[in-house]
From TrEMBL:
Lineage: Bacteria, Bacillati, Actinomycetota, Actinomycetes, Micrococcales
Name this polypeptide is given: Branched-chain amino acid transport system ATP-binding protein
GO cellular component, one term: plasma membrane
ATP-binding in keyword set: yes
Species the sequence originates in: Leifsonia shinshuensis
Domain ABC transporter: 7-276
């Protein structure tokens, strides 16, 4: 593994009742790289992201982030390690405001507000962190106030990133937002963690053309700022524009991988998309 490798996945496997959703795949993401996974419906893209982000455990294989093995870690720990994600169907807390939805993601990183938090895993001692958190919530400490200010600053900077869309909606509950704004809120929540790797599962699903173009512009901006991104997306124009490398999955396996232009010409890819007329059926790769 080179020093430039941020994420390395080796022989990763996950099956569901005999169905090999992810069937021994290996790939890596280098620092500052945008890597996309494409493939027909049910080819194992989301399962791959779920494995990388700790939402589910693999049946085999390894996942290494920045030199540390994470395939057995849970999602909270993986978030601390530096992977933040969004979900295919979009997940925000409907009754929380935009600002609070963004802040929610930051709670795994709190230190001054959650002293002794490691004890919370120990059954007999878990009242200690609870009492400490209660005290800090009511009385506060200089460190907890500094942390509060830092959190507010991060939330504001994420709202600023989407100023034109979320600026006026900062205190509105998520249920009152448009679908596209809910997805923006979710992306802002992930970015607030300043992740080493940003994982996005179909960020433009359900968006119209101009909303999709806006997401593309934002992805290009993140890329220019050096953000490493692992993206699953069905809109191939966007994929081909933003990606350094494209991985094509079919039936849980990687059937092609390379630069966007090379993948576009690969006959196995054309076969996966057009030959069997399923999944993206009918998408013009030319
Ligand atoms: N929790 C689960 N239990 C049982 N089967 C599952 C589960 N999650 C995924 N699968 C199956 O694994 C296969 C891969 O699913 P996955 O969601 O990874 O596909 P995908 O490539 O993301 O598809 P799409 O483009 O439709 O989002 C599918 O056959 C799916 O039905
Ligand atoms: Mg999916």
């Amino acid at each position: 593994m080179s020093a430039d490798t941020l994420l390395s996945v080796q022989k990763l496997e996950r099956h569901f009742d005999g169905l090999k959703a992810v069937d021994g795949i290996s790939f890596s993401v280098h620092r500052g790289e945008v890597v996309s996974i494409i493939g027909p419906n049910g080819s194992g893209k989301t399962t791959t992201l779920n494995l990388v982000t700790g939402a589910i455990r693999p049946n085999g294989g390894t996942i290494t982030l920045d030199g540390e093995r994470i395939e057995r870690a849970d999602s909270a720990r993986i978030a601390e390690h530096g992977i933040a994600r969004t979900f295919q169907n979009g997940r925000v807390f409907a009754t929380l405001s935009v600002a609070d939805n963004i802040e929610v993601g930051l709670h795994t990183t709190l230190r001054a507000h959650r002293p002794f938090r490691r004890l919370s895993n120990l059954f007999l001692l878990r009242w200690i962190p609870l009492l400490a958190e209660l005290y800090i919530a009511i009385v506060g400490t200089p460190a907890s106030r500094r942390e509060r200010a830092a959190i507010d600053a991060v939330v504001e900077s994420e709202i600023d990133r989407f100023e034109a869309r979320l600026g006026r909606r900062r205190d509105d509950p998520a249920y009152s937002l448009s679908y596209a704004n809910r997805r923006r809120t979710e992306i802002a929540r992930a970015l607030a963690l300043e992740p080493k790797l940003l994982v996005l599962d179909e960020p433009t699903a359900g968006m119209n053309q101009s909303e999709t173009a806006e997401v593309l512009a934002q992805l290009l901006e993140l890329k220019a700022a050096g953000q490493s991104i692992l993206l699953v997306e069905h809109k191939l124009d966007l994929v081909m524009t933003v990606s350094d490398r494209v991985i094509v999955m079919d039936g849980g396996r990687i059937i092609a991988e390379g630069r966007p232009d090379d993948v576009r010409r690969d006959t196995a890819v054309v076969e996966a998309y057009l030959g069997r007329r399923r999944g993206l059926g009918g998408v013009d790769l030319a």
